[in-house]
Known about the structure:
It is a single chain. The chain is of the alpha/beta class. It has helices spanning 21-32, 44-56, 71-85, 108-136, 157-176, 203-206, 214-225, 234-246, and strands at residues 12-16, 36-41, 61-65, 90-93, 139-144, 182-189, 254-257. Strands 3-2-1-4-5-6-7 form a seven-stranded parallel beta sheet, with helices on both faces. Bound molecules: nicotinamide-adenine-dinucleotide (NAD). Nicotinamide-adenine-dinucleotide (NAD) binds at residues 17, 19-23, 41-43, 46, 66-69, 94-97, 117, 144, 146, 189, 191-192, 194-197.
Amino acid sequence: MTNSQFSLDGKIALIVGGGRGIGAGIAMSLAKAGADVLIADFDADLAGGTAAEIEKLGRRSAAITVDVRDPASVQAMIATVERDFGKLDIAVNNAGIVSLGSVAELTVQQWDDLMTINLRGVFLCCQAELALMRKGGSGRIINTSSIAGKIGFPDLAHYTASKFGVIGFTNAFAKEVAREGITVNALCPGIVGTGMWRGDTGLSGRWAQDGESEEQSWERHQSALLPQGEAQTPEDMGQLAVFLASAPHVTGQAMAVDGGFSL
Ligand SMILES: NC(=O)c1ccc[n+]([C@@H]2O[C@H](COP(=O)([O-])OP(=O)(O)OC[C@H]3O[C@@H](n4cnc5c(N)ncnc54)[C@H](O)[C@@H]3O)[C@@H](O)[C@H]2O)c1
């Protein structure tokens, strides 16, 4: 039995970029609220791992390999959902990457790589998901943006632009489908200790000061940036995703889970 206010019993959810990190946390939260949750990811092993965890909760799942850069791959993902599960109630478009570089140093390749996954990927997924949701007459779409979708960060101008883009796209798209029972919202994580932040190749490792360990840099960034002083978790993102997957009259919004950082 799930919390009746937020019950997702009988719903089919798709998490794109659900193999690890925030996407995996959202997947588990939606499953705990009652949904069957399908995991799509570029990395087949990661997708399979999260799908197995969903099944351990007694929900149906599937691992789908997708590259959000590729329209044909995104279409094939939605065709698989329709063929094997018959409908799509909830879609979370969460695949994203980060890289670092000042505007003076950024390469066109860096810009294009990041935009193609973070922004074009969201468009391609939304377009394909819409076609299936329209057949069912309702839907909930959640696009992962960031606090960098509300405030600029140095050395992340391209990432910031992609995440501002996700919010603008989300608001416009929400208005297009507002009378069709389909809501579209953006979720803006603050700082979450996933592969994007942790380790020597994550942001805290690359932003470590001289003599500072990766762990110390991670602690410093949480404390310096976040009013509450501590990082958010994938489960925190799952909590908002369950709410957005339930609420019929919240649409076009960009909602942050960031410990008080942004407006
Ligand atoms: N971690 C944070 O602090 C933070 C903060 C704000 C926003 N975000 C956003 O949250 C989302 C998830 O980030 P995360 O921190 O969990 O990172 P992560 O790197 O742990 O997870 C990203 C997932 O996306 C998948 N992916 C990457 N490229 C893909 C592609 N082309 N096609 C399909 N899947 C692909 C990866 O395989 C991975 O499973 C991203 O959109 C990120 O920008 C993260």
